[in-house]
Design the sequence.
């Protein structure tokens, strides 16, 4: 019989995140050698990686880090189940990936996955860690924003899970008022899901499609021809107010826009990013 104790099993489970039976089998096969057991767990996990490729990874977390108050990184990492997504090992893996992104100044997931970590590509490192977790793990999205000041906000949709929503807001001033406004806008963006910072960022085809829909809807409603231009303009503006951050009515005071909040604080937004897990 292999020479190991219940304490060894517990310690190995904490180190690897593997199930109790998998840990016991690995210790048996390794004859109690912990390092060998970890290797066995990794190898067996990697063998199952191909089978996991087609599975969906829709749970996970969003994390953020701001460097020197001026550069923000936002990262989404996905797993298959919320059970793994809230585990310490998965959270630690996501933090490691974010540290690599920050250290390399990476702006895209593609570049990040090619980065070196512990002598191997990050993509291989993630695969090996996923093997231990026993689930498909995907580094899904990465954003980097810069400004005179960058604020980050993370929101938990469930107290039992890591943050599911993350926002970065960059502004062009670093006064106390600007910092306060940036934070308020980040919290606002977490709740109101803007897709664009300004109207200029909305694709031309999207605007044209909204105008077309507005015109066809107004005609179907029997609106008079002479009223159509004003109606189309009004409904297109309504689209902007819903989807453009600076045009949205501010959460704390819907009578004013986000742009007005920033203007009052002596600043304006220059960039933002918002991730919600799985969306």
Sequence:
């Amino acid at each position: 019989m292999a020479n190991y104790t219940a304490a060894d099993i517990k310690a190995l489970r904490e180190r690897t995140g593997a199930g109790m039976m998998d840990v016991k089998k690995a210790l048996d096969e390794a004859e109690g050698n912990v390092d060998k057991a970890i290797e066995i767990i990794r190898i067996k996990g990697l063998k199952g990686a191909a089978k996991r490729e087609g599975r969906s990874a829709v749970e996970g977390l969003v994390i953020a880090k701001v460097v020197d108050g001026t550069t923000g990184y936002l990262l989404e990492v996905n797993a298959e189940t919320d059970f793994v997504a809230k585990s310490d090992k998965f959270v630690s893996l996501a933090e490691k990936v974010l540290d690599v992104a920050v250290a390399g100044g990476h702006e895209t997931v593609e570049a990040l996955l090619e980065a070196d970590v512990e002598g191997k590509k990050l993509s291989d490192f993630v695969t090996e860690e996923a093997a231990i977790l026993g689930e498909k793990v995907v580094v899904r999205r990465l954003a980097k924003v810069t400004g005179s000041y960058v604020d980050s906000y993370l929101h938990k949709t469930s107290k039992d899970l890591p943050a599911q929503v993350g926002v970065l807001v960059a502004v062009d001033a670093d006064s106390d008022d600007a910092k306060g406004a940036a934070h308020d806008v980040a919290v606002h963006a977490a709740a109101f899901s803007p897709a664009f910072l300004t109207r200029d960022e909305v694709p031309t085809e999207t605007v044209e499609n909204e105008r077309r829909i507005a015109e066809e809807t107004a005609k179907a409603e029997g609106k008079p021809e002479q009223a159509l231009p004003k109606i189309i303009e009004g409904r297109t503006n309504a689209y902007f107010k819903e989807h453009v951050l600076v045009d949205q009515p501010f959460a704390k005071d819907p009578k004013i826009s986000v742009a007005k909040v920033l203007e009052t604080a002596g600043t304006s937004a220059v960039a933002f990013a918002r991730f919600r897990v799985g969306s």
